[in-house]
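Sample pair:
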Amino acid sequence: MKIVIIGDGKVGHKLTAQLSEENYDIVLIDQNEGKLKEALNQLDIFCITGNGADVEIQKQADVPHADLVIACASTDELNMLSCLLAKRLGAKHTIARVRNPVYYRQIDLLKEDLHLSMAVNPELAAANEIARVLLFPETSKVETFMKGRVELVEFPVREESHLIGLSLAEIYQKYQIKILVCAVKRGSEVYIPDGDFVLERGDKLHIAAAHQELKSFFCALGRKTTKVRKVLICGGGHVCFYLTGQLLQAGMQVKIIEQNEKRCEVLCENLPRATIIHGDAASHELLLEEGIQSADAVVALTGMDEENIIMALFAKTQGVNKIVAKVNEDTRAQMVEGLGIDSIISAKSATADAILGYVRARNNSARSVNMETMYRLINGKVEAQEFIIKKEGDYINIPLKDLPTKPNNLIACIGRNRKIIIPGGEDHLEVGDSVIIITKEHVINDLSDILA
C-alpha cells in the first residue's frame, strides 16, 4: 500500500513512524528540510522537501499512483487543498486533518465536494475522550466499540481495592458480572492474562464490558459512584470548546480559565451557559480563588504540556478526585503516569489512532473480515481491534476452547444481533459477528492471524 503523508508535524511524524513500522510504502512531504533529515535518519521512508499543495511536488511524490494521501500540515486550508489536488491527480483515497470548528461543522458538505475519504479533528477526538472519562470517573481511560455498546476501560487497582490477591477466575466467580480483563500493565510489563493471573496493588486493568455491566462491577467493588458535576477547565482552546459543549449537554457546571482576552470573548459568545474567567490558570492563587477545592474534576488543556502537568499536580494536592491533563509528548506522558495522574490525553495519539484504523481497514477490505475500530493501549504495546466477520473462515462455529490461538491474543467480546457476549469456552464465532480482539506485539489483518 503506497501512502503519501503531507506535513511532518506532531501527527504526521507519529503516523509516519507507526505506518513505516508496519512496512507500508511511505513518502513524507514537508517544507522544513531539517525536520525531514531527522525523519529520514530515524525511519525507513522516502522524503520530499516542498509544499504539499504544489502539483509538481505531489507528482514527484508519485501521488497519482498513491493508495492514500494523508494531509496533516499546519493549516486546514492547505490540507483540504492538498487532498483536492491529490484526488484530481488520481490518488485513490484522501484524509485531511481539519481543526477549525467552523469548517468541521460543515464537514459533510466539504467531504463531498473535496472527495475526502475521511476528515479528522484532533481536538474533537481529544474532547470526546475526556468527556467519556468524566462521565465514567472511576476509570482513567474509556474507549468504545460496536457503536458505543461496548466499553474498554482502564481501571487502576488502588491500595484499598478488594481485588488485590485475587485471581481473575476468582473475581469472575465472586462477582458473577459479565466483564473481561483483557490486559494488565504492571510496572513496565504488560500481560494478556488468563484465569490464573493474580492481581497486585498498582496494576492497571483494561476491562471490556457493556456499560451497564461495568457500572454494576464498580458498584459491587464498593466504589462510590461520585458523579462529576462541577468541572474546572484550564485553557480555552479548541479542545475546551468541544468538551464544554458536551459537558453542558450532560448537565455539568463548567468554569473555564483562559489567559487570552479575545478568546474569552469568543467563548462567552459561543458558550453562554459556561462561566468564563479571564486569567492565568498557572496561578495557584487564581485557582484557589475560583474554587479548585470544590471542583469534582479539573481538566488541564493549555498549549503547554509542562503547565498542564503542574496544574494537574496542584489539583491533586487540593484533593480533586478526577484530574485530566493534555500531554502531547509521548515521553512526558509516560513520566506523568508515575506521578499518580491517571488520565493523560493526547490529541496527537487520538488522531493517529483514528487514521491508522482507517489505513488498516482499507488494507484488509479484500479479506474475510472488515476492521471497524482500532485503539492502541498502554503506549502502543497492546492493540484492541474490532472486526466484522464477512464470510466463512477456519474459526467459524468452533467452540473457543477448541480454537488454537497464538499466545498474547484474546477474543474479548462478541457482538451478535445487538447482543453483547463476553465469551466463555463454549461460545463460538459466526458470520456477521462483531469481534473485539486484544493482541500484544503484532499486527492482525485477518482473524486467522490469531490462530496457532
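Residues 347-363 form the longest helix (17 residues).
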